[in-house]
């Protein structure tokens, strides 16, 4: 499974006075099993791009190949796309609606036309995968849970559809530090256990730097740069020009005059200690 | 210094559903807030920090104990509007606190409720919008603005009531980094103008400029002091499931590696300075 | 995009009509509607149409914009026309099987059609030249004398203000929830009526939850800003009648007199 997007364009309200170009010639490839971070300020076109990958928005031109199937071609069934690509929106807990956690998580798999047995199995797995105790939460109302748990349940609802590509739009927005860490750890675990492609949109540069294999920078509907975190975060000037910051620890190490691009605390400590060994 | 808020043995309990046992959200909180100070309150969700905030302007009334705001008892029904005019509040969700579909009318909402003369309202609204750099948006509809801009309108709406205290209840939790910076800048400016600021947040980088940091845990005050005092107790903070500012973390790690970094460093520039000093001694 | 929708059909401009006090415009519109029902001949309708045309020209609202508002009622127009032309009894001038058209029928049908068109255009001039919020304010102030009889004029206006503020928010919310459920495989477009209605539950439940959350947050925010009903409340925008408002009233009175005299004479 891999993703290949070629010359993707999207224009809102084509032909109307409010016409707006949201994506311009976006091309990239994502290899099997990669975790990709997407960064860009609000209104840069990130959300528009995500919704294309899931077939919620139709491309004005260009192609999106997912596992060899071009999903922009007419006649591709939506159910097929949604089996392959799962999309978790911002504040996904706002979409919970069922009377119990288990039923809510079962909604997505149920829409895929699976057998009841298969659905139950997947619900069990997905709830465990997001770090909740199935027996404890299955019959509880999702509305009674804490903020972090609600979000985990909402993510489980998409994970249970077993998508080969899991896209998360700012999965930690509005959470406190503890829940923030839990959700990120959970995303990493799901990624490792299922071997899916994970696409993570975040405003938190530190998180992206630590988690992603590749980073994409979007600005003004264009793909500005795509590369490893080291490559992308070594371009401080470029990022600043599109209104983005470096991860705080990277910024700090730059200030100290450390030449390499440092992305996490461990490396930073090592490099600073090295400064004193010389 | 004049104490503008005095909290004495505050207990707040609520019941989740009829007949169930009461949950104690605040447990014997004693605090005094200096007039003109900038106090940051941190704690994870459920620590009682938001409940505390709502007790400061009579949105919630103590179950036991007392809260005095500028000399008024919040439990006294007759002074509730005096208290709310003096202690304004900005909430987390920028969308759900704006009343009117025109920016300037929204800012006027508070002063109108206070029964102020129309010309005076006009003056205050224009001034408040200038204070938050939103003057050019006064005829716009809030739903067309960004989250940060909406939050600035909400602040203007409070500023126009000329409060002595503004309580910010996680004002940046739902904003992007740009919006967060804008709001923090405005909060610092208001503080400089002499407004007593109480900022509730869980972003550590927002509290390092405060005069005082209070850490709430399970309804109680866990730590209380200057940022330097509080963050030198990093282990206590971590036990309460909270982060410490990144420079505090780095300082700890470097000390473990044997570098002689002084305690109580919370800002980047302080760390750079300390490292340079250390280097020159070597 | 959904957030770009404009509410009502306000046409932004700075014409003398736009600047009139909303109360004057509301009353003038009501009088205009009454006049349309007093009139019963072509000269009268001619006067009404001329006055309306003058208002449109002064308001600088493009005719195409106004005509757009007529489209949805074309069907009603056609329907009432057909009903009148075939149903009214009188001097038969054309007949086919059970259908017959009378002279009186034609007259009434044509009058009714003109009346409806003028009515729709006339009342849409009110919403086209007055911001929804000023309209609410105007209604509140016109109804305020009724407060003495415990009529909740302030509360009604406040409710309208909040509704205007939150309709776009809720529309956006609906759009978001629908997309999120679609991503979980929801299908709103196929199947029979029952299936489609059922498919909406995953949208409606979160939407209600959202609406309640907004209501709760907003109530708290309003209380924190000292809201305590309409008592002792002042307003930033004072509504003071200006010369132009009195002139409009005078013109409106002359117009009304003219219509009454005209209707009596012919």
CATH classification, class level of the largest domain in chain A: Alpha Beta
CATH architecture of the largest domain in chain A: 3-Layer(aba) Sandwich
Order of helices and strands of chain A: EEEHEEHEHHHHEHEHEEHHHH
The fraction of residues in strands of chain B falls at 15-25%
Which parts of chain B are unreliable, with pLDDT below 50 for 5 consecutive residues or more?
none
Describe the model:
The complex is a heterotrimer of chains A (278), B (282) and C (266). Chain A has 2 domains: 34-57 and 76-234, Rossmann fold, CATH 3.40.50; 247-278, no CATH class. Helix content of chain A is 41%, strand content 22%. Chain A has helices spanning 46-53, 78-84, 101-111, 116-129, 134-137, 147-159, 177-194, 205-211, 229-233, 236-241, 248-255, 265-277, and strands at residues 3-12, 20-30, 35-39, 61-66, 69-70, 85-88, 165-169, 197-201, 214-219, 222-227. In chain A, the strands form 2 sheets. Chain A has a 6-stranded mixed beta sheet, with helices on both faces. A 4-stranded antiparallel beta sheet of chain A has the order 2-1-4-5, covered by helices on one side. Chain A starts with a strand and ends with a helix. Chain B is an alpha/beta fold and 282 residues long. In chain B, 37% of the residues lie in helices and 23% in strands. Chain B has helices at residues 49-55, 80-86, 103-113, 118-131, 147-159, 177-192, 227-231, 234-239, 246-256, 268-281; strands at residues 3-15, 22-34, 38-42, 64-69, 72-73, 87-90, 165-169, 196-201, 212-217, 220-225. In chain B, the strands form 2 sheets. Chain B has a 6-stranded mixed beta sheet with strand order 6-7-8-3-9-10, with helices on both faces. A 4-stranded antiparallel beta sheet of chain B has the order 2-1-4-5, covered by helices on one side. Chain C folds into 2 domains: 2-130 and 239-265, no CATH class; 154-224, no CATH class. In chain C, a hairpin with a 2-residue loop joins strand 1 and strand 2 (99-102). The model of chain C is unreliable at 1-7 (pLDDT under 50). The chains are: A alpha/beta (278), B alpha/beta (282), C mainly alpha (266). Chains in contact: A-B, A-C, B-C. At the A-C interface, helix 2, strand 6 and helix 3 of A face helix 8 and helix 10 of C.
């Amino acid at each position: 499974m891999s993703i290949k997007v070629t010359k993707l364009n999207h224009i809102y309200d084509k032909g109307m006075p409010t016409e707006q170009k949201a994506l311009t010639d976006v091309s990239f490839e994502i290899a099997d099993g990669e975790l990709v971070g997407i960064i860009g300020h609000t209104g840069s076109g990130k959300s528009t791009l995500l919704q294309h990958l899931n077939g919620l928005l139709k491309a004005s031109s260009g192609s999106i190949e997912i596992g060899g199937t071009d999903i922009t071609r007419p006649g591709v069934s939506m159910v097929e796309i949604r089996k392959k690509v799962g999309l978790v929106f911002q504040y996904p807990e706002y979409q919970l609606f069922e009377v119990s956690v288990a039923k809510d998580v079962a909604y997505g798999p149920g829409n895929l036309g699976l057998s009841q047995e298969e659905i139950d199995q997947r619900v069990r797995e997905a709830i465990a995968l997001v770090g909740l105790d199935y027996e404890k939460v299955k019959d509880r109302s999702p509305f009674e849970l804490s903020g972090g748990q609600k979000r985990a349940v909402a993510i489980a609802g998409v994970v249970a559809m077993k998508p080969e590509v899991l896209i998360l739009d700012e999965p930690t927005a509005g959470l406190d530090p503890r829940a923030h860490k839990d959700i990120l750890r959970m995303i990493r675990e799901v990624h490792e256990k299922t071997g899916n492609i994970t696409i993570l949109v975040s405003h938190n540069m530190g998180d992206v730097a630590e988690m992603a294999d590749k980073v994409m920078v979007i600005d003004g509907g264009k793909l500005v740069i795509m590369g490893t975190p080291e490559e992308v975060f070594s371009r401080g000037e470029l990022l600043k020009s599109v209104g983005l910051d470096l991860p705080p620890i990277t910024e700090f190490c730059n200030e100290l005059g450390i030449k390499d691009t440092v992305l996490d605390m461990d490396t930073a400590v090592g490099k600073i200690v090295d400064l004193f060994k010389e | 210094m004049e104490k503008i808020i005095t909290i004495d043995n505050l207990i707040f309990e609520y019941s989740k559903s009829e007949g169930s046992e009461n949950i104690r959200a605040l447990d014997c909180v004693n605090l005094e807030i200096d007039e003109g100070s900038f106090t940051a309150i941190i704690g994870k969700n459920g620590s009682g920090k938001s409940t505390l905030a709502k007790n400061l302007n009579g949105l919630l009334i103590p179950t036991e104990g007392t809260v005095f705001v500028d000399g008024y008892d919040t439990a006294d029904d007759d002074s509730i509007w005096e208290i709310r005019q003096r202690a304004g509040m900005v909430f987390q969700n920028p969308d759900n606190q704006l009343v009117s579909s025109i920016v300037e009318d929204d800012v006027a909402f508070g002063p109108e409720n206070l029964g102020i003369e129309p010309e005076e309202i006009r003056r205050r609204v224009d001034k408040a919008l200038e204070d938050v750099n939103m003057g050019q948006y006064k005829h716009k509809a809030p739903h067309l603005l960004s989250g940060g801009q909406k939050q600035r309108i909400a602040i203007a709406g409070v500023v126009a009531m000329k409060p002595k205290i503004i309580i910010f209840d996680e004002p940046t939790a739902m904003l992007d980094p740009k919006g967060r910076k804008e709001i923090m800048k405005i909060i610092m400016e208001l503080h400089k103008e002499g407004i007593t600021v109480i900022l509730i947040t869980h972003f550590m980088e927002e509290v390092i400029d405060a005069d005082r940091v209070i850490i709430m845990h399970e309804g109680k005050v866990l730590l209380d002091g200057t940022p330097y005092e509080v963050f030198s107790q990093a282990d206590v903070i971590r036990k309460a499931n909270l982060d410490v500012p990144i420079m505090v973390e780095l300082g700890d790690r470097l000390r473990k590696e044997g570098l002689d970094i002084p305690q109580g460093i919370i800002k980047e520039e302080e760390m750079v300075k300390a490292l340079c000093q250390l280097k020159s001694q070597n | 995009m959904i957030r770009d929708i404009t509410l009502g059909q306000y046409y932004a401009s700075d014409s003398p009509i736009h600047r009139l006090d909303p109360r004057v415009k509301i009353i003038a519109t009501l009088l205009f509607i009454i006049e349309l029902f007093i009139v019963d001949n072509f000269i009268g309708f001619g006067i009404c149409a001329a006055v309306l045309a003058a208002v449109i020209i002064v308001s600088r609202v493009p005719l195409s914009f106004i005509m757009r508002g007529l489209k949805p009622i074309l069907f009603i127009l056609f329907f009432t026309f057909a009903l009148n032309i075939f149903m009214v009894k009188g001097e038969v001038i054309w007949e086919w099987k059970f259908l017959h058209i009378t002279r009186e029928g034609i007259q009434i049908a044509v009058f009714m059609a003109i009346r409806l068109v003028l009515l729709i255009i006339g009342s849409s001039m009110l919403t086209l030249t007055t911001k929804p919020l000023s309209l609410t304010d105007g209604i509140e102030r016109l109804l305020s004398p009724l407060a003495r009889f415990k009529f909740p004029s302030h509360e009604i206006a406040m409710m309208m203000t909040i509704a205007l503020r939150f309709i776009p928010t809720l529309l956006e919310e609906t759009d978001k929830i629908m997309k999120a459920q679609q991503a979980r495989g929801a299908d709103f477009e196929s199947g029979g009526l029952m299936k489609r209605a059922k498919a909406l539950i995953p949208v409606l439940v979160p939407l209600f939850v959202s609406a309640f959350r907004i209501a709760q947050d907003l109530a708290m925010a309003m209380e924190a800003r000292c809201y305590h009903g309409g008592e002792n409340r002042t307003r930033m925008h004072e509504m003071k009648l200006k010369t132009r408002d009195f002139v409009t009233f005078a013109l409106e009175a002359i117009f009304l007199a003219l219509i009454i005299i005209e209707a009596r004479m012919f």
